[in-house]
TrEMBL record:
Pfam family, one: PLDc_3
Chain ranges of the PLD phosphodiesterase domain: 136-163, 358-384
Taxonomic source organism: Oopsacas minuta
Organism lineage: Eukaryota, Metazoa, Porifera, Hexactinellida, Hexasterophora
Name of the molecule in the record: Phospholipase D3-like
GO MF terms, alphabetically ordered: catalytic activity
Length: 431
């Protein structure tokens, strides 16, 4: 009798814990980048990926710009390549055990990617998406990992060993969240269909790919928080890749800015209000207008934390300086809000770190306001919304103790107030 009660108690405790959806912010913090004790810390991207791959029984679907998970891919010999190599090994083991692995990658990565080897060894089915076939140009830039229709990762991290140990990344991990994950997987299916030989952009997407979860009707995700459960939706770019009901990424982003009541904090690698890759070069002030309007007309305080590294474009610095124009007069109350800009630089501490190509950078692409969070895969230039394939997750959640937006605010503050973020220096008058 006593034992029966004991087992019942265990069951009551176990069942909800093992079946409830878990949503976690995961981060990559570059080697040797440290914060003061007590700063927010999150599970690593590496652990998140390893955990969901460990759960795989049937299927893994990955969409990715490219795949360079081995040190040898970048000619790097360093212990920090180990995590990436471990992920590649997991994929090989899963493929060998008969788990179906599908990878859709950007066409320009063909022949230069670890996926080539997975395909050759028949461990994965690999397809390449050529965005030039669909009238917009651009590239496949979405970073998605799906496992068994229940678990997923989406965020800024490429399938690259550097994204796990040498680049600063932020994403979201969903574990045991079939409704959310199966909705997101419809975006993968769009890439999968369009990367088949001869594929054409359909005039109307099949109804099976449409969604009822969007900006108007986000999905309530039960993470055991009762009335504090979050509401989420995924959005996609370019808009030609959005079946019925799917919110366009640009609209999701603009809506988050428009619905802010107090502040908008943006952490994005690159910010340029122009279409810089597709010819002709075009001014693209869509987001820029929205930010200035929010600050000047609605008293919203805006912080933009862009990234500074050896490849930063001078043009971005000038555009960011222009954003701060009204901050100069923030003392005048009738001007309402202001826009402050800082640049986050990941320091290079060692010669080994210096020798790693395209590393040591803040690659984050998210935004958080007083009422919503937005985790994306895109830089804020016109190209990423007009032509490149990317996605975002928008999250609304009542502020319980540790809501996802609150976690993002804490991460943003940690970084904004850190010694790695410095106010942009705008040189003003030359006289
Ligand atoms: C950087 O991190 C590595 C690996 O954790 C460690 O071995 C090394 O001592 C650190 N170097 C510095 C300069 O902090
Ligand atoms: C991608 O598609 C464009 C236009 O259809 C074509 O010209 C180009 O050769 C394709 N790229 C590759 C690598 O196949
Ligand atoms: C993986 O992708 C294929 C093709 O889009 C789809 O049929 C399958 O359901 C997907 N599986 C998962 C786990 O997302
Ligand atoms: C945007 O982000 C990618 C990586 O996601 C980076 O390599 C690229 O140079 C960035 N900037 C622009 C302006 O595209
Ligand atoms: C890209 O931008 C051009 C010019 O601003 C516009 O005409 C076109 O509709 C846009 N395309 C997409 C897919 O957003
Ligand atoms: C919030 O945190 C406080 C103090 O840590 C705790 O007493 C309370 O139970 C928490 N509330 C919820 C909803 O988790
Ligand atoms: C300001 O001047 C310094 C020194 O000449 C220069 O390095 C920096 O790039 C300038 N900043 C901007 C935003 O023009």
């Amino acid at each position: 009798m006593r034992w029966t009660i004991f087992y019942l108690v265990i069951l009551v405790h176990l069942v909800p814990v093992t079946t409830l959806c878990q949503l976690k912010i995961v981060e990559s913090i570059p080697q040797n980048l440290t914060y003061p004790g007590g700063s927010p810390t999150h599970e690593s991207t590496f652990k998140g990926w390893a955990d969901i791959l460990n759960l795989a029984k049937n299927e893994v679907n990955i969409s990715s710009f490219y795949m360079t998970l081995k040190g040898s891919d970048t000619k790097t010999k360093d212990p920090s390549t180990k995590e990436g190599e471990q992920i590649l090994t997991s994929l090989k083991l899963l493929g060998g055990k008969g788990v179906t692995i599908r990878i859709v990658e950007e066409i320009s990565s063909k022949g230069k990617s670890d996926s080539d080897q997975l395909e050759k060894l028949k461990l994965a089915q690999v397809q390449h998406l050529n965005m030039s076939n669909f009238g917009t140009g651009g590239i496949l830039h979405t970073k998605f990992i799906f496992v068994d229709g229940k678990h997923m990762y989406v965020g800024s991290a490429n399938m690259d060993w550097r994204s796990l140990t040498q680049v600063k990344e932020l994403g979201i991990l969903a574990i045991n969240c079939p409704t959310l994950v199966q909705d997101a997987a419809k975006i993968f299916e769009v890439y999968w269909q369009l990367s088949k030989p001869g594929a054409k952009l359909p005039h109307v997407w099949p109804p099976a790919l449409s969604t009822s979860f969007n900006m108007q009707t986000p999905m309530k995700v039960d993470i055991g928080g009762g009335s504090n459960n979050p509401y989420l939706y995924l959005s996609s770019a370019p808009y030609t890749f959005c079946p019925t009901g799917r919110t366009r990424d640009l609209n999701a982003l603009l809506n988050v800015i428009r619905s802010a009541e107090k502040f908008v904090w943006i952490a994005v690698m690159d910010y340029i209000p122009a279409i810089i890759y597709n010819k002709p070069y075009q001014f693209w002030p869509v987001i820029d207008d929205e930010l200035r309007r929010a600050a000047i007309e609605r008293n919203i305080n805006i912080r933009v934390m862009a990234s500074y590294w050896s490849h930063t474009k001078e043009q971005m610095l000038q555009y960011l300086c222009s954003l701060t124009a009204d901050s100069q007069i923030k003392r005048y109350p009738h001007y309402g809000g202001w826009i402050d800009v800082k640049l986050f630089e990941v320091p290079v501490f060692t010669p080994e770190q210096k020798s790693i190509p395209f590393a040591r950078v803040n690659h984050n692409k998210y935004m958080v306001t007083d009422n919503k969070g937005y985790i994306g895969t895109s830089n804020w230039t016109g190209d990423y919304f007009n032509s490149t394939a990317g996605v975002s997750v928008t999250i609304q959640q009542k502020d319980g103790n540790n809501s996802l937006p609150q976690q993002l605010r804490d991460i943003f503050s940690r970084d904004w107030d850190s010694k790695y973020a410095k106010p942009i220096i705008c040189n003003g008058s030359v006289f």
